[in-house]
Amino acid sequence: xxxxxxxxxxxxxxxxxxxxxxxxxxxxxxxxxxxxxxxxxxxxxxxxxxxxxxxxxxxxxxxxxxxxxxxxxxxxxxxxxxxxxxxxxxxxxxxxxxxxxxxxxxxxxxxxxxxxxxxxxxxxxxxxxxxxxx
Length: 134
What we know:
- By secondary structure, this protein is of the alpha+beta class.
- It is built from one helix and six strands, in the order αββββββ.
- It has one helix at 2-45; strands spanning 72-75, 81-85, 88-92, 97-100, 115-120, 129-133.
- The longest helix is centred in the N-terminal third of the chain and has 44 residues, at 2-45.
- The termini are far apart.
- The mean pLDDT is 81.
């Protein structure tokens, strides 16, 4: 009778130990699963390739711009960037600036060095623009 009680107690103890091991293994599995999901969330959210971020380059008089600040900016259909400043009209081809200034002895030069506003005209296909010179 005592041996039967001891056997029952030993069996209960083994069952409790087994249950504790299973519970521990289950919680460990849950932890690893959550850890893997956490890591995957960063992989899935973070793009594999960097996004196209705009690149800003600051140009100044040292780079060929006629003035450090521009009153207006325009891009024509050929890809040229035009900058209107108080010191002339600047055309940028991606590599260098060409500055157009008023020349009193040349009737075909721009009428004024102060360039204020650009706007596209109806002849947009040709890349033309209206200038407002001050």
